[in-house]
Each structure stands twice: as C-alpha cells, then as structure tokens.
Design goal:
This protein is 71% helix and 0% strand. The protein is mainly α.
Length: 241
C-alpha cells in the first residue's frame, strides 16, 4: 500500500505552526534588514553624514552575518537552540534600536554589525530547526518554505525602506522591526525546548573566519587610505599622460 506524501498543511499542524513561524520570521527579518538598507541609505547619509563609508553598512552586515551563521550550529549544540535563537533575536533587536537612534555613521556601522551577527544566528537556527523538528518527508517542503520566506522578504525590504524614506523618517525602517522581534522572542521562548540536541562539539574555524573578515575589511578600507605605501593597487594603475 502506497503512503501518500504529506501535504503542505502538515507544516502548520500542531506545534509545527509555531516552528514554521519562527523559521520564516527569523529568516525574513534577516533578509528585510539586509535589503531595505539600499532604499534608506541616501536619507541616512543626508542626515548624519558618512558618505565615505557608504558601502560599509551593507558590507559589515554581510561579514557579521556570515560569522553568525558559521557560529550558529556550534552555539546550538553547546547551549541549546532556544538560547541560541534568543541570542540572535536579542542582537537583532539591539542592532535595530541602535541603528534607529544612531547620531553618527560610526554608531550606525556598529549597529549594522550587531544586526548582521544576530541575523546570521537566526538563519543558522532556522536550518537547524528544519533538521530537528520536521520529519524527513517534510524536509524538502521546509527548505522550500525558507526559500519562499527569503524571496518575499527580499521584495518587502526595499518597498518598506522606500516607504519610510519617502515620508522622511528613515529611522522608522529600523523601529518597525522592534515589535516583530519582540513577538518572535516570545515564540522562541515558548515553543523551543531549552536543550533539544546533544552531539559532539565541532571546533569552530575561528581563525579562518577572522582572516576572511579582515581581508574583506582591508579591501573596503583601501578606499579611505591615501598613502601610496598602503594602496598597492595604485602602483599598478595606468597613469594618464
């Protein structure tokens, strides 16, 4: 007798409804924070300055998110998925509030780095939950759900950011995430067990991650360095006659 494959509605039956909500909202918040920046950044620079570091907001977010994603699995094994996810939500919350009240570009850059770290942790927990809380028969559908959440958030982010930029309140783009993150923290606390997995702790390749992050920062910093001794690229640049 052939067993019918589970339907899409199985993703929202019983406790899986809360789990699916945590997965999609966590991934969605990370993507929205990433994509909305392009729409509000011109308004940010106009108000608080920092045009020299225009590209750093997105770059620091991406680097710290990569580090957060790489660390997420290790944190889940050591501390449990609930604590790891709550840490990600807390970092995103602090980062969004910091960005919303940032008086200078330097403060905004720090806030974006904190945001990225928290978002990366949430993405790591989302994929961990796909393995921990869903049967193999639903695994492909969960991954599709994550991809759909990513795509929708990538569409919503620029639209939301553009809306806040249009009304002249770019800080609202960051404040708007606060109530969503508060609700997400409640779902995480209520529906994720404190210690759901046990396993061998795999050493984190921290040194390699640091080298990658530093290398990217050095490439970006070359745009602000004026010394020929440091800007190696100038030596090979063609000179105008």
């Amino acid at each position: 007798m052939t067993v019918a494959p589970p339907t899409w509605s199985a993703l929202v039956h019983g406790p899986r409804l809360a789990h699916s909500a945590i997965v999609t909202v966590g991934v969605g918040m990370y993507v929205v924070d990433s994509f909305m920046l392009a729409a509000v950044l011109p308004s940010i620079v106009e108000e608080i300055g920092g045009a020299t570091f225009y590209t750093w907001c997105a770059m620091l977010y991406t680097i710290s998110a990569t580090l957060g994603t790489a660390c997420g699995g290790l944190l889940a094994v050591r501390s449990g998925m609930r604590r790891s996810a709550l840490l990600g939500v807390l970092l995103l919350l602090v980062g969004n509030v910091g960005a919303a009240v940032a008086p200078t570009m330097m403060v905004l850059l720090v806030a974006r780095a904190v945001q990225g770290l928290g978002g990366g942790l949430l993405v790591a927990q989302a994929y961990g939950m796909a393995s921990a809380f869903y049967p193999d028969s639903l695994r492909a559908r969960v991954l599709t759900m994550i991809s759909v959440a990513h795509g929708l958030a990538a569409l919503v982010g620029p639209i939301a950011g553009g809306g806040f930029a249009t009304i002249g309140w770019w800080r609202g783009a960051f404040w708007a995430a606060v109530p969503v993150l508060v609700v997400l923290s409640g779902l995480v606390w209520r529906f994720l067990p404190p210690r759901e997995t046990e396993g061998d702790v795999v050493p984190l390749p921290l040194l390699r991650l640091i080298f990658v992050g530093v290398a990217v920062l050095c490439v970006a910093a070359s745009g602000q360095v004026v010394s020929l001794a440091l800007r190696f690229s100038r030596w090979a640049a063609p000179r105008s006659s």
